[in-house]
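Researcher: I'm comparing several assemblies side by side, and this is the next one on my list. It has 649 residues spread over two chains. Same procedure as the others: predict the full complex and return the structure.
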Amino acid sequence: MLEIENLNVRYETDQGEAVHAVDGVDLTLQPNETLGLVGESGCGKTTLAKSLIGLLGRNGEIVDGSIDFKGRDLTTLSKGELRKEIRWKEISMIPQNAMNGFDPVYTVGKQIVQVIRHHEEGVTKDEAWDRARELFEQLGLEEERVEDYPHQFSGGMAQRAMIALAISLNPTILLADEPTTALDVVIQDRILRRINELQNELNSSMILVTHDMSVVAETCDRIAVMYGGRIVECADTETILKNPKHPYTIGLRNAFPDITEESQELVSIPGAPPELVDPVDECRFAPRCPFAKTECWDGHPDATHFGDGHRAECFRAHEGEQLRAAGEDPETWTDMQDEKQASEVSHD
Amino acid sequence: MALLQAIVERARRFQGQKLVTKVYELYRTDNLAKIGMFLFGVYLLMAIFGPLLAPYDPLTINKDASDSVIRLSEPTANHWFGTTNYGRDIFSQWLIGARISLVVGSVAALFATTLGTVIGLTAAYYGGWVDDILMRFTDLVYGLPGLPFVIALVFILGSSLMNIILVIALIQWRITARVIRSEALSIKERPYIESAESIGASDARIIFLHILPNVLPLVILYMALTTAWSILMEASISFLGFAAPNQLSWGRMMYQVYNAGVIRDAWWWVLPPGLSIMLLVMSVFFIGRALEKVTNPDLRH
């Protein structure tokens, strides 16, 4: 239904540098599917999500690739077409911080009513208000609260209200950009479950952007792991969690606790995601990868396919078994850091 | 009963009320604002009812029992503020002059703030070359010397009341434009503006329905300040004799005293318009000062 092919998004900085925030992404989304987009901050997840509805700001631009949605290429649509035909009607977005997602000068209900009346012709004010109340009820909020202002809502309630707003037009795709990051785990769980239920009722797909592995593990059908502007591994949830092939996925999985194991040392991946200004032609993860070989520095690996839609971009993906075994040992990662520091010292 | 309850509920939820309460609270604690409100109220009543209250026609030449013109009379029981060199009643002129000052001040301020707000919002929202062009143009207007520019334009366009208002507005919008732009720059980066954009709101809708309401307190503040400046400017233009001859304002009264060559002697002629201009401008500034405290909480301490 949604097919992204070789998408390239660039931001122009004030210094005139080009930041390759999304650099050759292929991704598909099936009807009624929940896709988790995971990765560290600064890997291009949000940019990828926003590029679908052309929300890249003044300095961002899709320079290459296509986004096929219901037979139309979203990258070729004009601003007006995107605004009237795609945004919210087809693809709606739950923003990162719902508390600030509402305009403080209008009541929440009024904002929902505005959206409904703006996009659907012939809906009377009363009908729109009734629908707003209905949406509130669906999300477990008291109906009377539609007449409240955003600042009168708690974080969790504002998030629910935001979801109400997002589903007000029964969109085909929901883009949820870290919808629960600002909330405590109990509320987080409740809201995610509600989103999932609603998504099934409405028969819509969802792209869930998050850096929280436990969230995707619980809610998503399929996971795409993003690193340095590329999707380095993509497979169904179970495969990603049990049988990852890419060292980054392995590292990412280590960094989250598993409640089924009694004592477990959490291992973080040393280093930080790459700067995406004029990226060099090497595996993006190589500088942080404990398994990097010489060929990893010479060019970017192509995707290796393992069937069932499982693909990984790594020269050593076929050695997944061994890598995983080694990757589960914390020392693999810490040793690498020590070595690196040692070599840096000797260079000085 | 149910209806009453509904009304009470509405009133309780009405957010504007909060603002009104807040403003009232400030006025209560701010003595200068009280003075400003009182003075402005008096002048407002004068502007509305002045022509009805005036005991004489302001242009009639008054004569005494022996049929000679009462020239430059000091205040008497018949002529409370005395008379001019042509025997005209100053009290009546003063009462009627309030209307022009207030009308020019407020209408020019309304035009100026509207223009400045639209320019500021457009520049801030679109950024890039739109911003550059609009703001460089604003800089240009900043570079114009106010009064000479206004006088030159009035001279070219002809001196009618409407032209004077227009010309004052054309020079006064610059302050509002800059201030509103800087505030809108910060508002437009807020997440709810991006939300509105992702929902499919048009540019105009975002600018006027989402950014404008959030900068409105500042717009109102600048409207008050611009009113004060416009009143002063009208007085200056009239004092210099560039106003329309039939436009009886306090500035014009000063112009006539000056021309009669009695500005040092006829205190009863100079003081009413002079003090009134000062007090009116002062009252508007006091109100503006209180409004500024509402919009900028830092000033409350």
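Model: For your comparison table: Chain A touches chain B at residues 53, 55, 58, 82-84, 86-89, 92-93, 95-97, 100-106, 115, 118-119, 147-149, 165 (CB under 8 Å).
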